[in-house]
Please model this.
Amino acid sequence: MKIQAIAAVAAMGAALSGCATIVDGSSQSMSVSTTPVQGAACTLTNSEGTWYVTSPGSTQVHKTKNDLTVTCTKDGYQPGSQVAVSKFGGATFGNIVAGGGIGALVDAASGANYYYDSPLIVPLGEAKTASAAPPPK
Model:
């Protein structure tokens, strides 16, 4: 009887250890920088929310199967934007092998089985030039 209990506890531990929700969590830190200058106000948006950061900087975002759009603005430059593509993480595979489909469903619902590449570099548009007023008639 003790051997069965120990085996059950070991199996449960193995099933949970592959769970991306526990291992990776449902949020991640995103680092953003801009070129050719820093100090831009950046907005990060996906289906789970909106976050703000000044470049260079980092913020915690909620992971999801949807891409993360990053838009940055700085006085004197055209706005720039970049898309961080949502990618499927490998921790879920261990969950499917060890624990079956239930853990994979939990990971999908929490966003834990996805990630974004970080750091993200957002190129700002060309510098704005002051235009001269047309001469009076």
